[in-house]
Amino acid sequence: MSVSAPPTARRPVLMSARIWFALLIFAGFAALPLIAVVTDDPFLLLIGTRILAYAIAAMALDLILGYGAMVSFGHAAYLGFGAYAVAILNSYGVTDLTLHITFAVAISALFATITGAISLRTRGVYFIMITLAFGQMAYFFFVSLSAYGGDDGTPLATRSTLFGSAALEDDRVMFYVALALLIALFIVATRIVGSRFGRVLIGTRENPVRMEAIGLSPFRYQLTAFVISGCMTSVAGVILANQAEFVSPAFMSWHRSGELIVMVVLGGIGNLTGAIGGAVVALLLEDWLAVLTEHWRLLFGVFLILMVLYSPHGITGALERFTRGRK
């Protein structure tokens, strides 16, 4: 699947604009706890933490979908690895957040290396289907784990600890830790995209034959990006588990993978800031439309179709056009 990219001459300007959009989003997130206090609505923090987790997952998926043209339909598996890393280590009395993230990243790296090495032997719809198959294998593996509730999932006895303290039991601390992780991973992803590695990955997306002709191996670069993306997504799973204080195989179903792709498309493919914005808009629309009608998915589908038809580069693409128009 080919993914269009902005012309090279405009890319530095676009990157600068996208960084500013990202800073505005982060500033809005940072103000959310204050808004929750003013409105006396602590539930906003739980919603905000959930959005932050999905923003990380959508951004991680966009790293391979938007910049590497790898449409993974099993990416939610890494959400599950992150969530179950918390549950499994908690059951053995290991509650440190750093160890939870390390364990989640290690499992995800191993799974992504093996499955990516196989999946990247295919192209197009075959790649989509084989990643879906691997994702479902992981899903049914955790369904079979009766020790952790099987299909019903299992509650967490406690949230992860932070440097030995139970600070994450405070929803505000949990929110700001999630925000800090999002910002840190955004910086990492931005540096990756702007590096030589990122340029080769984009070149591989545009013309893999040409990359091979100049002596570069598309497979190695794509596999590395695939592993990095899976590891980043697992961090989102750790956040989700702590936010919900519950872990279930539903975290890694193919429906969840589809939702992540929708977030990326909605925000703008090949745009890390767009992936974050897409996660924000998608989850807020889900909550707001669900209040209006039980058939909210129909309205959401209409909105997504209109967005794809009239703004192929997503929400951030529309904002960039608006900004250029004003200038």
TrEMBL record:
InterPro entries: ABC_transp_permease (IPR001851), LivM-like (IPR043428). One of its GO terms (molecular function) is branched-chain amino acid transmembrane transporter activity. The chain crosses the membrane at residues 20-39, 51-69, 76-93, 99-118, 125-148, 173-193, 260-284, 296-319. It is a multi-pass membrane protein. One of its GO terms (cellular component) is plasma membrane. Keywords: Cell membrane, Membrane, Transmembrane, Transmembrane helix. It is found in: Cell membrane. Its main location: membrane. This is Amino acid/amide ABC transporter membrane protein 2, HAAT family.
